[in-house]
Amino acid sequence: xxxxxxxxxxxxxxxxxxxxxxxxxxxxxxxxxxxxxxxxxxxxxxxxxxxxxxxxxxxxxxxxxxxxxxxxxxxxxxxxxxxxxxxxxxxxxxxxxxxxxxxxxxxxxxxxxxxxxxxxxxxxxxxxxxxxxxxxxxxxxxxxxxxxxxxxxxxxxxxxxxxxxxxxxxxxxxxxxxxxxxxxxxxxxxxxxxxxxxxxxxxxxxxxxxxxxxxxxxxxxxxxxxxxxxxxxxxxxxxxxxxxxxxxxxxxxxxxxxxxxxxxxxxxxxxxxxxxxxxxxxxxxxxxxxxxxxxxxxxxxxxxxxxxxxxxxxxxxxxxxxxxxxxxxxxxxxxxxxxxxxxxxxxxxxxxxxxxxxxxxxxxxxxxxxxxxxxxxxxxxxxxxxxxxxxxxxxxxxxxxxxxxxxxxxxxxxxxxxxxxxxxxxxxxxxxxxxxxxxxxxxxxxxxxxxxxxxxxxxxxxxxxxxxxxxxxxxxxxxxxxxxxxxxxxxxxxxxxxxxxxxxxxxxxxxxxxxxxxxxxxxxxxxxxxxxxxxxxxxxxxxxxxxxxxxxxxxxxxxxxxxxxxxxxxxxxxxxxxxxxxxxxxxxxxxxxxxxxxxxxxxxxxxxxxxxxxxxxxxxxxxxxxxxxxxxxxxxxxxxxxxxxxxxxxxxxxxxxxxxxxxxxxxxxxxxxxxxxxxxxxxxxxxxxxxxxxxxxxxxxxxxxxxxxxxxxxxx
Length: 716
Fold this sequence. Notes:
By secondary structure, the chain is an alpha+beta fold. It is built from 15 helices and 30 strands. Strands 11-12-13-14-15-17-16 form a 7-stranded mixed β-barrel. It has a 5-stranded antiparallel beta sheet with strand order 1-2-3-7-6, with no helix packed on it. Strands 4, 5, 8, 9 and 10 form a 5-stranded antiparallel beta sheet that branches. The longest helix has 24 residues, at 549-572. The two termini are 56 Å apart.
């Protein structure tokens, strides 16, 4: 018998979790799950505490799977408020879901129950899943139950709550589920998302993480090249180790209604808690948009405010549509159509360390599905700066062939300069092809004649803009190479008109040529920020490729997923093989990518964009001006002819300290200003270094400089 001791909970907590109470009758506590889980030979003992002066009956109501409810009386222990009943072992067979609630009634026929189940979206039962000794897995197991076994295949956004789940010792009940994705809707194996709906943030996905309202399970049915069954979780772990903003993601095995359903990558959404965990401020509420795919979700400047909803979803419920104007102004600023030239705007309004680190990591991993979708854009209220957040990273470690095969003739992700360039996502390296290809999704995105208004207002809006817009901005090639004196092909050089107002040159490009990202394009066309990005890329190359660390990450993830990936492929009839996928990464993708970055695109290569390695040398930097007070700062000066990556470096002085976040790079012959209080406060200074001057500003300092503080610089 599994014996479960009830835990008394304070009345204040009871109100929060919604336990039943009616006219002085209160079911205060009920056994919420079974730890350890019962086996098929175990009965399940349930205990509850009931308060009430005239209790006439207390009943345990239980249900096995989706059968009929059964009610049995609970016995009182020695005149106390503790009641006990047992679900017979014969009822709880291996692999079955057992759910229950406790109902108390007094002599006036008032009744209360726990869980209270106050509305259709509330928790209806507590429960557990009986151990199945015939089943084993090498990954965390999610026991998912849905009244409709086809629920994970249903893409409806508002399915009625109908599912329950046991995961990591916690039982969740009466939540909704829907199929997710766009092109993946045609996959035999679904991606799906579960939502707590009215219950709010109920799901716990890791011991250190806050609870979340929604959890995704990605099927990893199809990947570029050989299927590795791990690209998504591998990419998130790589981003984490590179210091890029990241979300929790790991591999699981899902059982549906007691039967094996497959291996899925668990993931979560960007939320306020996730933003705070990655170092952002969330108060007061500010806009956060998710790109909704297609060429018009790329921060172009000529999307009217009333059409933002067609191409982006506002993810901050406290903002709604009021943030649309801010997104439009971002697009215009990136194009130089605001009050500042592009070269000043990106230093004023973009969190460059975070964005450059994101860009460099995506380039190293060759994520080819990120220019017009699979990102969010967030305006941090503490910095008053926008950052790019990664999303849906399963397109990472891109390749364009089967193991031992030849590159695709047209969509040659790894082989062709359009995609493998460090300048991918700028205006000369768009995401999509200008011709129809065998890749259905790409064909849909790049061929306007195939877009149907049947897809909803988003597609209708795209068609409207495709009719009204067109044309191409011409530019003259100029410098942008890793070192002075090196020449670049025109499609890799900085155009001479990079700092001119692009909004005066005609409407934005449409079709395949328009599938670049306007934020990335601005950073790569401004010489100062391009130098910062290329230096950070070089740092990551040296830290992760030269050392073999990236290959170690690949091997570690392969060892985690291999066994379950093979089971999954057999279950779903996936032609992929994790062994072939791993072999292709190790023997083709990683070596080819290494050759490209270190040879083709570095000094001495055909397209010399990436600088040579640079040893960490704090003595090459100097402390410039220091200003005291709440709007003070410390200037760190780089007098070198090349950019210096100071990620992880520290400043220390009397009463002050600071650590530079990953992605912080000081441009050549330039400075970074570390604000005493905040970047926002620094921008509001009335004299001296201040906002609008295109200065590179980070912060805040720990402590306040007094203007005469002696400060030293140390490398990590």
